[in-house]
Amino acid sequence: MTFEQLRIFVEVARLQHLTKAAANLRLTQSAVSAAIKALENRYDVKLFDRVGRSLSLNPVGKAFLVEAKEVLHRVQMAESMLSSASDLSSGELNVMASRTAGTYWLPAHLSRFKQRFPGIRLKIAIGNSEEVAKAVLAGSVEIGIVEAPMDEVPHEGMTWFQVKEDEMIVVVAAGHPWADGNAVISSLGETSWVLREHGSGTRSVFDRLLASKGVAATSVSIEMEFPDNQAVICAVEAGFGATLISRAAVASAIEQGRLVPVNISPIPRPYFLLRHAGRYRTKAADVFERQILDMD
Fold first, then answer.
1. Structural contact between residues 120 and 91, judged by C-beta atoms closer than 8 angstroms
2. Number of H helices and number of E strands within the chain?
3. Tens-place pLDDT, residues 4-16
4. How far, in whole angstroms, is CA 230 from its chain's centroid?
């Protein structure tokens, strides 16, 4: 049974006339007749009662017509879905971002994309950089945004490129000894620290800061660890120590005087967009990727 045979059968059943059906389908009458006969012979049934030159559906034909119409409808729906995907009138964009990028950078890009393509459903997930990379590798998301250097996250089989450069700064509460903008800091071990968890891009930058200063991680007092920037900010504001964090994450707290930047040079940190090299690339994801490049 072929799609063409179904299409011919439904049209003949609608008109109950071979010649008229052939004209509507732009086929010869012999081709239409052959298609009906092929169906009947293949399954050893009769679909029409033939009285002279007239055709009428018999009980088998009537039952088959219901199923044939449903199959054609599903095919039309499938074609419509593919057409919509090609013109971005519908579909899905599946993105996962690490927490800082996902909170302070990604929303503006998503908002612009949604304004341009309101029919695309956005599915957004947040995790740390390691979790994002694993999700892209597993195929559970198509686009990932991470903050950690690519040599510190799983990336085999992926393509990636930089889309943004963040700035990491050390901040403390207003009453902290380092809150004086002129304070000379001789050792990072002079204070306790409140940090993001291992696996996050933020923690990776902190570990690199220690290495650049020749400081062993074991010599630094880590008071608390959190999987969330806001929790880190609240703990620092409460006086539990210093933290290294994205400037974007603490901009309002600095403006309001709740946190103070420390006299340590800011550290640049790139954001990377990840795609799986071997998986199907949707048009929605490709357009979103190009939009990011155009905006930055």
1. yes
2. 11, 11
3. 999 899 998 888 8
4. 24
Do residues 236 and 192 make contact, with C-beta atoms less than 8 angstroms apart? no
User: What's the CATH fold of domain 91-164+271-295?
Assistant: D-Maltodextrin-Binding Protein; domain 2 (3.40.190)
pLDDT score recorded for residue 95: 96
In contact, 12 and 19? CB cutoff 8 Å: no
**pLDDT (0 to 100) of residue 147:** 85
What is the pTM assigned to this prediction? 0.65
Q: What digits encode the pLDDT tens for the residues 27-41?
A: 999 998 999 999 889
Cα distances (angstroms) measured from residue 71 to each of 13, 48, 76: 15, 20, 9
Report residues of the chain scoring pLDDT below 70.
77, 80-86, 152, 154, 295-296
Residue of 260, 99, 268 lying closest to 167 (CA atoms): 268
Tell which residue, 167, 86, 99, has the closest CA to residue 129. 99
Q: What is the largest CA-CA distance in the chain?
A: 106
Whether 3-86 and 165-268 share one fold: the answer is: no
CATH number of the structural domain 3-86: 1.10.10.10
Q: How is the chain split into domains, by residue range?
A: 3-86, 91-164+271-295, 165-268
CB 144 within 8 A of CB 95: yes
Fold of 165-268: D-Maltodextrin-Binding Protein; domain 2 (3.40.190)
What pLDDT was estimated at residue 154? 67
